[in-house]
Write a structure and sequence with these properties.
27% of the residues lie in helices and 27% in strands. The chain has 226 residues and is of the alpha+beta class. The protein has a domain of 148 residues. The protein has a seven-stranded antiparallel β-sheet with strand order 1-2-3-4-7-8-9, sandwiched between helices. Strands 5-6 form a two-stranded antiparallel sheet. Strands 10-11 form a two-stranded antiparallel ribbon.
């Protein structure tokens, strides 16, 4: 397993901690995280507001950690490091290089008012000589990739019983697809990562089932009866 960490400083929080609501914000987070990884900057001694952790094993995911609020997305790139765990190269799954120039090109497209109004790479026209043009192939790959968004919240502001538990997981980001899983306690960063690590044993959902009290849902039996 490979783990690479970076601090998120005060002036960076709007980039890294903004809510993920659509593919544009997902793409923006991926390329900004890639830029942060490539910088290999020493930030010890600086006041950080959060941290970024890339975990690569059977899974490949970006984790963002604040106090009592974590979230994670899939990271659809290949990362090459040196012996000191410094990132020296990031490429897409088809071999397109995520260097600083291409990252800037992608951010320019995502921030373009025309594109934000109609986020379609088919109808978005660019001259081949333009600076942004080199970002299109990578952005196309990102838009085809499943974000796999998971967020943990300790939300004492909006707590509302079993409809909005104090501790909960938010699965997916869109208003039409998101749902919550309540948690009985605060969870650690390690638990949050293990929950999504396919090399770890699965966690179980324990819930009240009719008048039978608490029990484990037998997924295999449920499918057999269908």
């Amino acid at each position: 397993m490979k783990k690479i960490e970076r601090n998120i400083l005060q002036y960076q929080q709007n980039d890294f901690l903004a809510p993920i609501r659509d593919k544009i914000s997902f793409a923006r987070l991926l390329v900004i995280a890639s830029r942060q990884l490539l910088l290999n900057e020493e930030t010890e001694g600086y006041s950080s507001v959060a941290k970024l952790r890339l975990v690569i094993d059977k899974m490949s995911r970006i984790f963002i950690y604040q106090r009592h609020r974590y979230f994670s997305v899939a990271f659809p790139f290949t990362v090459l490091t040196d012996d000191n765990n410094n990132v020296i190269n990031i490429t897409s799954l088809t071999g397109n290089k995520l260097d600083f120039q291409n990252i800037s090109a992608i951010i320019a497209i995502l921030d373009n008012d025309q594109f934000r109004h109609n986020p379609s790479l088919i109808s978005f026209s660019l001259e081949p000589q333009s600076i942004e043009y080199s970002g299109i192939p990578i952005l196309e790959e990102i838009f085809r990739f499943e974000p796999s968004y998971v967020r943990y919240d300790y939300d004492n502001t909006n707590e509302g019983g079993k409809f909005h538990p104090l501790n909960h997981l938010d699965i997916n980001y869109s208003q039409s697809g998101t749902f919550k899983l309540g948690l009985p306690n605060v969870i650690t960063e390690t638990y949050f990562e293990n929950l999504q690590d396919t090399n770890k044993q699965c966690s179980y959902i324990i819930d009240k089932i009719g008048s039978c009290g608490y029990g484990k849902i037998n997924i295999k039996s449920a499918r057999t009866k269908q």
